[in-house]
Amino acid sequence: MPSAVVAPRHLGGHRTLTKRSASPPTSPTKTGLGQDQLRRNNLSALLTRVHLHGSISRASLTRGLGLNRSTIGGLAATLEDLGLVTERQPSAVRQSGRPSLVLEPRRDNVAVAVDIGVDRIVTALVALGGDVLHQRQRPHAPGEHDVTHVIESAAQMVEDLLVAEPAARCLGIGVSVPGAVRDSDGFVRFAPNLGWVDQPFTELFSERVGTRVFTGNDANLGVLAEHLRGAAVGHADVAYVNGSVGIGGGFLVGGVPLHGSRGYAGEVGHLLVDGSSTLQCRCGNVGCWETKVGENQLLVRAGRLPGGGPEGVAEVIAAAAAGEKRAADALDDVGQWIGAGLRAVINVFNPEVIVLGGSMAALWQARQDVVDKTLDRWTLMSPRSDVIIRASAFGLASPWRGAAEMVFAPVLADPASVLELSTPAQAGVG
Amino acid sequence: MPSAVVAPRHLGGHRTLTKRSASPPTSPTKTGLGQDQLRRNNLSALLTRVHLHGSISRASLTRGLGLNRSTIGGLAATLEDLGLVTERQPSAVRQSGRPSLVLEPRRDNVAVAVDIGVDRIVTALVALGGDVLHQRQRPHAPGEHDVTHVIESAAQMVEDLLVAEPAARCLGIGVSVPGAVRDSDGFVRFAPNLGWVDQPFTELFSERVGTRVFTGNDANLGVLAEHLRGAAVGHADVAYVNGSVGIGGGFLVGGVPLHGSRGYAGEVGHLLVDGSSTLQCRCGNVGCWETKVGENQLLVRAGRLPGGGPEGVAEVIAAAAAGEKRAADALDDVGQWIGAGLRAVINVFNPEVIVLGGSMAALWQARQDVVDKTLDRWTLMSPRSDVIIRASAFGLASPWRGAAEMVFAPVLADPASVLELSTPAQAGVG
């Protein structure tokens, strides 16, 4: 019977162990579901769609969620009572018959995003639904990378943002840090490019601003933003490689963020790519990928001074295009090493899409041929055959966009929990 | 208010993006749940516990699943009707009052497991609940690695097993292959150590045996077995590294198997660890991890002939213990390269536990000090601090144990689907 030859889809077949399964099919920890979990799941699913689509009709929610009209109506009413969505008549009725109400996120629910970079701090106020209401940027005072200065500077910038929206309900503050952040409490174990080791950053910052703070690794947050709203929408197996002074990696595996047992996973910048190198990396090792493709490596290789940042990289790319041999050679060299590192990423993760962030996007665009040649030569046939490589959709903004999503996450997972948040007056900083 | 300083657990806090979340909290694909999915989930959760625990009382199921007694009773009755479990009075009543019925898996539901190794084929008949009823092993005829010979040989071995249990309901055949297997249909893209490229193995084998066949990569199946019943029980972030002639990697990320976009992920054997090496790997590259720590590399380094397999490796370890310098030096050298590769695994995945399978377990046990020294020197501080390294619980059997679980998976995920399987008479091979 031919129909039985290959495992039928409806029986699972090969799909049973693919990325579509949220956990191993025989997950030992699987538990029963009651009516309250059922309702929480459905409230969460509805609010998540409204948050990601911005504005969506009851009719499309009914189709998208596979629930009937009356269930959708009840869920929408609950979210309206929670102050998370509003319902309105559609602006234009396209067909005859009763028009379907349109749900919209209430933009007076806001997340504060903070990006602590090596050279600057960026803060932004992001509304439920994803609109960026305000944004600020401030360079670090020279030599003031230390936690105390960073917290004070960031706290003042957060206050500036919140006073601009006095009526908003602040759902929390999300912070992106270029280092290893412990998932359980946001303790920063290791941020070499800031010079931080074992800093209770999240606790200190929470005490200073009086609001709940979520802290994450910049690349882990970057891949989340690209997955939800950027260059990796619709892809469940994603590698995000963020290149600046250092190299950070953020990964989605079957739609699940790769964090590891404590939140330190994804350190592809320290993969050994050149065993014969003698140049020491900030991690203490030699031959790390980041010592071959970091911004300063390119700048020095091209005869420039280190520390030029993304602008310095852009200048080298322009000079190479204008025919400067030393700049062109530096790009060729870095292009080959980008390929060498991406080769490992492809063989280990077999991603559907690789999103390049920070300076690495510009470097790849300038030397795509060199990168591709390295990959075609050295990557295992199978995973290479269908990987897509793209530049980040948000550029330098991916990490703080993801930081905002990290703040929305618990409310999206359990919308009723928003009631347990303090009111604007209490949540307001200072 | 101090209680609000650090993000409260019940609001998600830092947990929201950790491995405990089955998908990103703002998963764009999250859908609604209806009553039928609710019931399927609960049937699945109950059968999964019975399958993994072998025998479990209604009382502990009530506690473990968080469902009430009557719900458990109804679910148990349905599974009994499906012929998947039996209920019996407990053998010994320890306390007064009504004794709680005990559920057991019906062992006449069987999975056939097939492990296609480089030198031999192993087959086993595994019952629901995990008991191994029968096992067979047969070496490949010299030079008969090709798909046609392997399929015929394996099919005969499968027939031998099934005639031994004529009354059993065969849930399917699970096959472990040492190569890149496409998730969607079990097509084998690349199995270098068998010399297979682009082979429709699963389709051909299904046609030959007339039963549904599931095919997976050996290391991906190995980590599943170790997670469900072996050295990684209770761990959600697991790295399984299987070393023999080649090196295979199987990973669990937040409890989700790492398969990648097509099922080719986990190829850590081809990570570059020695840029100065000139020895070419079977993948066509040079400097791959597997060229430094594969069985034959150790044997040649120790002055033995390649092809000695696990027995050859054991002989070298014994000779080194007996004082043979050349053997000891070879082990020291391989031990350092094992450390170099595990360093990358730790920095990229930050696993809770690394399970070593095949010859690598023995090599690590023989040179644990050398491996640890390399890790302590070169691994990033954070992920290194709490990783556990262990030998596989099933040794060479992990891949076929996992292959059996791959067969049980769709039935555990949707127990009612077992009705759509053909009866023993029809499912019987031949």
TrEMBL record, chains A, B:
Region Disordered: start-end pairs: 1-35
The organism's superkingdom is given as Bacteria
Which InterPro entries does the UniProt record give?
ATPase_NBD, ROK, WH-like_DNA-bd_sf, WH_DNA-bd_sf
Q: Where is the composition biased (Polar residues)?
A: 19-35
Task: Give the family, as the similarity comment puts it.
Answer: Belongs to the ROK (NagC/XylR) family.
Query: What's the name of the protein?
Result: ROK family transcriptional regulator
Taxonomic lineage:
Bacteria, Bacillati, Actinomycetota, Actinomycetes, Propionibacteriales
